[in-house]
Amino acid sequence: MTIRRPFDDLIDLLKQLPGTDSVSVTKELQGVASATSVAESDIYQLLIWLAEWQKTSSPKLNESYICVFASSYAGYDEQARLLSFIEGAGKGREPVSNLCKERGVGLRVLEMALEVPHVVSENWPEKDCMAAIAFGMQATAAGGDILGLASISPGNECHCPALCQQLVEAIGSDKQMIADQSEFNTLCVTILELMKKKAGREVAAMVGALIAARSSSLPVLVEGWSGIAALGILAAIGPRFTDHVKVASVECKEQFEIVAALGMQPVIGGTVNLGAGCGIALALSAIAPLLNLTIEDAPTASF
Question: Under a CB-based contact definition with an 8 Å cutoff, are residues 98 and 139 in contact?
Answer without folding.
Answer: no
